[in-house]
User: Which sequence fits this backbone?
């Protein structure tokens, strides 16, 4: 047990180092942009006087290193400064949107993970059958279509022709869980369709790879039914690669859904990031990037830990 | 009919010192009640309540809903007082006195007084002002209260259109707090209270029952949503999630029209698309090169293919056909490759003229297509236009006003003077053709201070001709505002054309059937 805690702590330490490097990259990438930051922000309205006034207001007259330390230390305390465009605190803007993004990702994960694992197990069970082929064709088609296209198809069939779900996800603060789930249904289904293929095929492949191993043969010789062989004997050993794929897809659900957000007018972090890039609102851009990076690192960390826990050989390294 | 009304109005103001009578407001039979849901094509997370930085359709509609303005542009294009009961200029048009209505209140119950007006205008003035309205309030040299309910503006030069200036969406009357205009609280004196504002997502309003004008504001509540994606906006209207949308996608407008229960409205206005050429850069410093290009564009084709017919051809000046002082007798410029070739010869160019045209769809919807069509039609005129596609992102800071030849759009300006002084006066930052014409610039100042409508008309006609024949801007088309509503909504007979959606005053002017 102590070994595991030590291992997790070590991984966590590596995660923090990665995050620190990412923060350096984020900050210096903005610094490296050509021209004065204030000029970029003002765009059309840049005159020498306004540029000077804004530079002073943004503290651009101080050396970059000092500004980096300042930015990082307040970011660690959850304070990302205030937006250049509307002067509101960045954390205040991020918080409700981050919640929305997590909600959508959570809903999509709650649908897609069980479905894809079950589909993967069934496909392995009835390998090369009509079911296997069918599941592959359908999920590969859905992952190959651009997500906004899937969204439009769903809107056409589930909102316009058969008005079951709303075509725009108009979520607001006072909604009950049920109302919110209902409003978020179409984007969640879209995302489910996008991520299902990856996880399902990984499950199927991992299980099939194991089916050739001697211990499975032993179980078969003992006369175990096929489903039991797969669920009880093969699946636990196939978990490590599946967990990795699930974590990657979860990270995608949180950080990569801006197109879906735009199609369904869903107020998530992706839209905030795109708006801020267009408006050259760097504090918001930096905060979003840092949060996305942290999400990726954290989920990969969880995947690593999960993989280690599911594999005794890794649990007790020599 | 409208034209005579407006002319009569101006002649009234020309009579000078007498206070201007306000157009009567007839009691309307519009039904009260209901929750209005609007889907707007704009709205960004960077939006804020500060009117100094308002720049898109979402915030313009929002500010009109919860704020009051001294004056407003009515549906027929005339000017009426909103918070101002009356106004009068001095004989030279330099000093204007505005009298406030009595009994105006903010949503927190406080009275609207002269001090508020002063602080609200001062919000945009001053040396280090970053306000987008700074140029339009710059001519104001002094503002002072004249008693509790009157404000006296002193200008650096006479301006007969000054009351129009005060209808600008940047200039709402905000409550004064510690000597400064308080925009942060979102308290205004408009028809609706702002109950919720999430930038880039939505704004919600409830009716302010103590508003002075009981003929305005028929909805109980308003939910305004930012739906930037055109397909999402169209779907939201078709599935009944919103009652109206702006900026209908012109590519699919015919399909939308055929849906039962939906009405598409097209309002010809002042919005126009342009191709500015920098007159300080060769070859555009030669007026014959400019004229050659102006003759080499097929205007009808652009209106038909880019605007799907929802617009009108332009005559290389920025004044729309429905506007007061539009030069009706000025001959419409046509596509004429022979004339273009003649001008090239006069410019001393033998053979083919080669120019780069830098465009992106950020300039206006369909700008790249329009540039390609332009290049095609210019070939026959001996001009080789190389269309350079630029990224949308950063277009306004890196391409427009920088490259010698690019694309641009202009929204509404309610008066000829405001349009000219924004983009054609020598030395102003948005003069994107860097055009300087002495005659034009002296006429501009002269016309501004002229109270005799006939004389003004003469001057404005000449100025339009100067822009058309000497200016650096090709104005091929005027785009109509196209929006769609559910048939449950009732719209007034006259729909304002100074901005989209009834001058962005739909919240107070529209109602349910």
Assistant:
């Amino acid at each position: 047990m102590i070994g595991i805690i030590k291992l997790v702590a070590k991984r966590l330490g590596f995660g923090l180092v990665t995050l620190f490097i990412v923060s350096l990259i984020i900050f210096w990438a903005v610094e490296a942009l050509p021209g004065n930051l204030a000029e970029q922000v003002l765009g059309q309205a840049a005159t020498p006087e306004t540029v000077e006034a804004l530079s002073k207001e943004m503290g651009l007259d101080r050396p970059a290193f000092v500004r980096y330390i300042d930015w990082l230390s307040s970011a660690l305390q959850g304070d990302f400064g205030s937006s250049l465009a509307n002067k509101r605190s960045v954390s205040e803007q991020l918080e409700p949107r981050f919640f929305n993004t997590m909600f959508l990702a959570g809903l999509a994960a709650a649908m897609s993970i069980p479905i894809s694992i079950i589909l993967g197990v069934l496909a392995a069970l009835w390998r090369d059958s009509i079911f296997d082929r069918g599941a592959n064709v359908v999920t590969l088609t859905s992952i190959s279509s651009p997500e906004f296209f899937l969204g439009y198809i769903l809107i056409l069939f589930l909102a316009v022709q058969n008005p079951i779900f709303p075509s725009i996800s108009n979520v607001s603060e006072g909604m009950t869980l049920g109302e919110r789930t209902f409003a978020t249904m179409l984007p969640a289904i879209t995302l489910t369709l996008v991520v299902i293929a990856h996880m399902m095929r990984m499950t199927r492949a991992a299980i099939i790879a194991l089916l050739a191993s001697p211990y499975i043969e032993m179980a078969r010789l003992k006369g175990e039914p096929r489903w039991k062989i797969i669920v009880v004997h093969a699946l636990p050993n196939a978990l490590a690669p599946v967990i990795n794929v699930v974590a990657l897809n979860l990270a995608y659900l949180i950080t990569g859904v801006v197109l879906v957000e735009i199609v369904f007018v869903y107020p998530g972090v992706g839209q905030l990031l795109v708006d801020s890039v267009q408006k050259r609102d760097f504090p918001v851009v930096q905060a979003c990037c840092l949060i996305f990076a942290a999400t990726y690192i954290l989920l990969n960390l969880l995947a690593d830990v999960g993989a280690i826990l599911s594999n005794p050989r890794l649990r007790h390294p020599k | 009919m409208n034209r005579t009304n407006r002319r009569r109005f101006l002649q009234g103001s020309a009579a000078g010192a007498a206070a201007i009578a306000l157009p009567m407001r007839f009691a309307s039979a519009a039904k009260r009640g209901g929750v209005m849901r609007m889907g707007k094509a704009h709205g960004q997370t960077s939006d804020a309540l500060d009117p100094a930085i308002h720049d898109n359709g979402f915030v313009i509609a929002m500010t009109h809903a919860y704020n009051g303005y001294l004056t407003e542009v009515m549906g027929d294009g005339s000017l009426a007082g909103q918070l101002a009961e009356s106004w009068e200029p001095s004989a030279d048009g330099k000093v204007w006195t505005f009298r406030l209505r009595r009994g105006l209140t903010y949503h927190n119950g406080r009275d609207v007084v002269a001090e508020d007006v002063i602080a609200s205008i001062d919000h945009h003035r001053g040396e280090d002002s970053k306000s987008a309205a700074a140029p339009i309030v710059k001519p104001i040299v002094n503002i002072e209260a004249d008693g509790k309910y009157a404000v006296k503006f002193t200008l650096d030069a006479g301006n007969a259109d000054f009351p129009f200036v005060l209808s600008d969406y940047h200039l709402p009357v905000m409550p004064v707090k510690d000597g400064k205009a308080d925009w942060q609280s979102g308290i205004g004196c408009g028809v609706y209270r702002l109950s919720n504002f999430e930038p880039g997502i939505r704004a919600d309003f409830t009716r302010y029952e103590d508003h002075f004008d009981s003929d305005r504001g028929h909805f109980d509540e308003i939910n305004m949503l930012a739906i930037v994606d055109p397909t999402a906006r169209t779907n939201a209207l078709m599935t009944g999630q919103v009652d109206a949308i702006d900026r209908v996608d012109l590519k699919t407008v015919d399909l939308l029209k055929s849906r039962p229960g939906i009405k598409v409205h097209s309002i010809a206005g002042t919005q126009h698309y342009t191709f500015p050429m920098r007159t300080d850069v060769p070859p555009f410093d030669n007026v014959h090169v400019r004229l050659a290009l102006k003759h080499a564009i097929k205007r009808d084709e652009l209106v038909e293919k880019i605007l799907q017919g929802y617009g009108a051809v332009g005559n290389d000046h920025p004044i729309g056909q429905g506007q007061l002082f539009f030069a009706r007798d000025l001959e419409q410029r046509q596509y004429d490759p022979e004339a273009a070739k003649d001008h090239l010869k006069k410019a001393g160019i033998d053979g083919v003229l080669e120019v780069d045209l830098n465009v992106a769809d950020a300039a206006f919807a369909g700008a790249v297509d329009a540039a390609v069509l332009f290049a095609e039609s210019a070939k026959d005129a001996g001009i080789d236009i190389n269309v350079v596609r630029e990224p949308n992102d950063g277009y306004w800071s890196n391409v427009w006003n920088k490259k010698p030849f690019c694309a641009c759009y202009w929204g509404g300006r309610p008066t000829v003077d405001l349009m000219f002084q924004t983009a054609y006066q020598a030395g102003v930052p948005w003069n994107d053709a860097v055009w300087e014409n002495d005659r034009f610039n002296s006429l501009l100042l002269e016309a501004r201070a002229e109270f005799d409508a006939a004389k003004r008309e003469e001057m404005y006609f000449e100025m339009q001709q100067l822009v058309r024949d000497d200016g650096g801007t090709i104005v091929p088309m005027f785009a109509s505002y196209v929006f769609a509503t559910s048939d449950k909504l009732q719209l007034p007979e006259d729909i304002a054309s100074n901005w989209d959606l009834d001058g962005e005053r739909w919240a107070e002017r529209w109602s349910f059937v």
